[in-house]
């Protein structure tokens, strides 16, 4: 690092002193905290993003959001060149950077890191970082801090994409690095074109009669509602009534997280909407759940991420089957695409059973998008979803290029046949779904297209299987990091003995299943229990909560 670079870094870092006594950690979803504490952290993540861009020779993304958290919080996370999450190997550096107490120790850290990672700062390196933020009022000044961080690295430039959904920013990074135009309009064009082609290939007779064509969407009073308002004017085939599009308080009694956890109607919905197909986005529009309101009640029938996953898996399996018709198998033209499904331990047991019954390979990973995404990328078609509504579909390059070729062959030999249409549908899905990261807007359009394809109402979809009753609780303990889990968080290995105690408790309940894990976003331990009745699930969760208290609580030494 030359002298000029050093002095720029020292000077700019001195304008962003870290708040005293706060420890930052780049958790499952980047840094999150009360917005008033975050300026120095965001400035430093700006530096990190610029370095990552120099190292990879690619465009990097930096998103300012705290998703479904309260409006006074904010956060920052980095998108890697593929559009996915920042590589896990840089997370310890992110932590160290955010916690460096003063400009000189920051400089020392940077010096060591660029040496270790062979990042060359000499001789006009080129770096570009795309910046986005959600609708939080604190986003503007934090965006400014990020810009200052980026420009503290010589040669690096920031490109402000403005208020965007988290998945839009990830999509833009991915597109840019593939050499594709990456504006917001390009994003909408791609979604709309592929959505329309899916509707164009709906089998005759299956159309729309069984589907109420009205959809009501809860925008969580965040960026997703605002964007959907823009998108819907171009949708044509679908009538969407967007509520909570930014006129109320972000995430307060609204949004996918609230609806999924509380299982009650969000604000601005009421008895008049009973039975109608409804969906809910989270604050930065990377989660999506559906629901329908029960008559004369504020309760809902939840159609969660597991059911979205099941709908996608069913459709893709069917289309692959049509494409690899029996003649092709004989003629050796079929390609045995591996289709895999990735869930976490939070997936309802009934969904896992259903997917296995479909003959699919189901794998569990620990909680957190980065783990699911990484696993799903091992398949030709990998579908991943968390029960909370975050998920997407990944297509391998090998499969997509085979599919392209096969589609061209079919277009010349058997245009318009079912087989040809299956190829076209699969291609359309690969363009409609955001392969960078889970995306509520693109996911919503895919759900809508598949429901129309099947001629299904939300009720029919919900009947694919019946969820087992479940209960989630959280427990405050002395030190949640004392819990070490294994087997995708389904087994506790430390403290010793607690897993046996959980097993004994669980065995008392028919269809009982229970696990505990330390939260990655809150200072609590989470308990999840499932059983054949709601009462049993509640009882199991409460007994295991007492075990957690006993082994890790304030009363224990
Ligand atoms: C974050 C994760 C989400 C996970 C949740 C778990 C990302 C982008 N987001 O929101 O996938 O489900 O944390 O929270 O990875 P918890 O650790 O507090 O239970
Ligand atoms: Mg989110």
From TrEMBL:
Which coenzyme or cofactor does it need?
Mg(2+)
Classification via Gene3D superfamilies: Alpha-D-Glucose-1,6-Bisphosphate, subunit A, domain 3 (3.40.120.10), Alpha-D-phosphohexomutase, C-terminal domain (3.30.310.50)
Keywords for this entry? Isomerase, Magnesium, Metal-binding, Phosphoprotein
User: What's a GO biological-process term for it?
Assistant: UDP-N-acetylglucosamine biosynthetic process
Limits of the Alpha-D-phosphohexomutase alpha/beta/alpha domain: 58-89
Q: Which Pfam families match?
A: AMG1_II, AMG1_III, PGM_PMM_I, PGM_PMM_IV
Q: Does the keyword Membrane apply?
A: no
Q: What is its EC number?
A: 5.4.2.3
What this protein is reported to do is described as: Interconverts GlcNAc-6-P and GlcNAc-1-P.
The protein here is known as Phosphoacetylglucosamine mutase
